[in-house]
Structure formats: structure tokens, C-alpha cells
Amino acid sequence: MELPKFVLGDNTDFPDDIFIIHLDYPRFIINLKDDEVEIMEEPEDLDEAELNAEMESLIEQANAFYDREMERYEQD
User: Fold this and answer.
1) Nearest to 59 by CA among 32, 48, 11, 41
2) Does 46 have pLDDT greater than 90?
3) Contact, 41 vs 27, CB < 8 A?
């Protein structure tokens, strides 16, 4: 099975929260309610500066994913 790079998620225990889950390496979750990022597996092959740059890029991609999904939702 081929998985998408990002998915949207919610949880009944957190009714006001929307999550973006990054399924590629490094796996992380963004809570859009407060923009908190939880890294599930930190890359061991990157130093701190590289990790920060990589995460910044991935978070920008996650935001673009969310914007596209919301546009598609509003069209339907």
C-alpha cells in the first residue's frame, strides 16, 4: 500500500483540534489548534541546524497541504 505524505486527523477526545500527520521520515504531528509539533522520530542523520531547516520546510509543506485540502472541501 502506498501512503500519502500527509493526512488530516481528528479525535473525539480533542473536539477542537485538527491534526496534520506526516507519514514519511521523520514522522511528526502538527496540532493546528496551537501549532504544536510533536516529532515521533527524530532524524539521527541530521545535526540540529539541518533538522531545523528540514522541519521548517516540512511544516511549510504541511500548511500548503492543509490549504489545498480545505479548498477541495469547500468546492464539494
Assistant:
1) 32
2) no
3) yes
